[in-house]
Amino acid sequence: MKRIVVLISGSGSNLQALIDACARKEISGNICAVFSNVADAYGLTRAQQAGIATQVVEPRAFADRAAYDAALADAVDAYRPDLVVLAGYMRILTPEFVNRYAGIMLNIHPSLLPKYPGLHTHQRALENGDREHGVTVHFVTEELDGGPVVLQAVVPIIENDTEDTLAKRVQVEEHRIYPLVVSWFVDGRLTMRDGSAWMDGKPLSAQGFQS
């Protein structure tokens, strides 16, 4: 059983999707710890209700981002993770942290990368008059939201969509594809090689799989 550590900052809905997938044996792995930079993040409650160890590492206790990430990495390493999953973790990671987990760290981002890295993706898609939006699961590299894409799910933008309605439809797809990608990784089918995502021994295209 592969050991998974999850980092969160908020409500943890993607964390819950992963917890549920593990419980259904759809992921051949064990979430051994959940970390948060926010003490009252509801995702910590979700983890505790599932019997998963939790730990809060608060930024204000550290002099700078480098010191914080070094301490967080040491705490994560105590669980000997095979995979580190970012599930709504809202801090920008230092290159040192990213490189420490190169090839074993995944993130989910609510846009069809490379479109709209960063924040406010739903608003930006609506303001630009896009006809479709979506979500991307990718490996984490030093470039913000720029790592190799594994899987994307497309969501049509419909008339009278708001940020809230669009976000809710995107989130449905998040909860579907993130556990799937994690399962590929823990089953040994998905790897990162030479800056690219590989599936079943073959490199994926720049856009990864489309779902």
UniProtKB/TrEMBL annotation:
It is an enzyme of class 2 (transferase). Its EC number is 2.1.2.2. Residues 2-182 form the Formyl transferase N-terminal domain. The keyword Cell membrane does not apply. GO terms for biological process: 'de novo' IMP biosynthetic process. Pfam families: Formyl_trans_N (PF00551). It catalyses: N(1)-(5-phospho-beta-D-ribosyl)glycinamide + (6R)-10-formyltetrahydrofolate = N(2)-formyl-N(1)-(5-phospho-beta-D-ribosyl)glycinamide + (6S)-5,6,7,8-tetrahydrofolate + H(+). The active site is at 109 (proton donor). Keywords: Purine biosynthesis, Transferase. The keyword Disulfide bond does not apply. InterPro entries: Formyl_transf_N, Formyl_transf_N_sf, GART, GART_AS. The record marks 145 as: Raises pKa of active site His. Pathway: Purine metabolism; IMP biosynthesis via de novo pathway; N(2)-formyl-N(1)-(5-phospho-D-ribosyl)glycinamide from N(1)-(5-phospho-D-ribosyl)glycinamide (10-formyl THF route): step 1/1. N(1)-(5-phospho-beta-D-ribosyl)glycinamide binds at residues 12-14. (6R)-10-formyltetrahydrofolate binds at residues 65, 90-93, 107. One of its GO terms (molecular function) is phosphoribosylglycinamide formyltransferase activity. One of its GO terms (cellular component) is cytosol. Gene3D superfamilies: Formyl transferase, N-terminal domain. Belongs to the GART family. Catalyzes the transfer of a formyl group from 10-formyltetrahydrofolate to 5-phospho-ribosyl-glycinamide (GAR), producing 5-phospho-ribosyl-N-formylglycinamide (FGAR) and tetrahydrofolate. This is Phosphoribosylglycinamide formyltransferase. It comes from Leminorella richardii. The gene is purN.
